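Chain A, query sequence.
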Amino acid sequence: MLRNASISAALIVWIPLTAAGALPNYADMELQARSNLLVNDNGYNLPPGSSFNSISADIDDSAMVAFRVQLVPDEEHPNQYRPGVWFGGHGAGALVYIGPIDASIDNDVCLTHFDGSDIVSIPFTLSATGVGNNLYLYGGTVAGGGSAEPFNTAPVIPNSYSYPCLGIAGTMSFQADYGSGRAYVTVIDDGGIEVTSFIGDEGVTPGSPYTYLYTPSFNDHAAIAAKVSYSEDMTSSLEIRLFTNGGDSQRLLANDTLDPSSPYSRFDNSLALNNDDTIAVVATRAADNRRVLVRSDGVTTVELAEVDPSGTIRDIEFFAPTINDDGLVAFRAKDADGQAIYVADGIELKRVIGNADIVQTDLGTAQIGQDNSSDPIFSGKPAINAHGDIAFIAGLYPQGDNQEEWGSGVFVAYAESVVDDIVFADGFDG
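Chain A, predicted structure.
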């Protein structure tokens, strides 16, 4: 489905998701933006010649979307490029920030837009020199219009920032990268910067039990979940740990080296955390060496999907899954037809979109895929909101002709529970 509209404040009506164990359907796929080489076409909802690859989009509970664009042609010098941040939804959107020439936005953005608020916040990292970066915060409204300013984190001043995300009460969480190691940090600006959480590895915090801190995931309450290592080789003794804002922590999962009763020998490097402090992570079972998608709150652990060479899921790709507060998990996988995105709730498993599926675009009917079967179809990881809507990025070609390039599209797959006839204010036609 393709909707043409301008960004505006919107009144969106939702009905509850289907009962537990009855996964939503995803028949409605809507294109938000599309990039392509300028020699092919001008793209959609982006300046002509804009380009992005290997990125992930984020989605909020009103199905608005944000993502970074690595290359935006300069208006006066089209052979020079700037980075940008895109925001929009329901088929409309635009770049809300464009950086300096030759700079880079080197982390995926995190979209913060709480229910009942018109304020949109998008933290991102900007590198002007290619060495280190600075933390910025874009602030605007759903209707558009805003600005990006540097975000002060002193006294925490790392060489670079990774994975910044804004939570409630203005908490900013990020990974701080130093020459000697890493730390997970949460700060709050309440008239002055207060560091509310700082977890460093042994290279940053002497006496720390952690030899390595892997990619973190943050929730709205500034809790942090991550894979951590206790062994000098950084890979033998592994744990998934939850750090609450304020410094308390608990084990959610451990591998069989740390806990001989654990069924898991390894965990992927990245994971997802929801607002109920429940994680989704891909683990490797010790008994049969199969990769499995796991959901856990530290008390109850459920395997949602497993790799089976002759089954539905032939492989689980090395990208973080995504989880909403209902425990619905979306993830990248491979099935008998190739790459696909699936959702699981612990009872059912459903294919959302995948190789050769048909979608509607600004150019007409397209198929998901690439001209070369060995090239990845999807970019980055999917994102899911509270209603089950899923944002994803995929390669496109015209229906029946995979030798023609239609670039990459940013889509929202709407959960069946979303009311189809949405009434928008100010002419934003759903």
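The radius of gyration is 21 Å. The mean pLDDT is 91.
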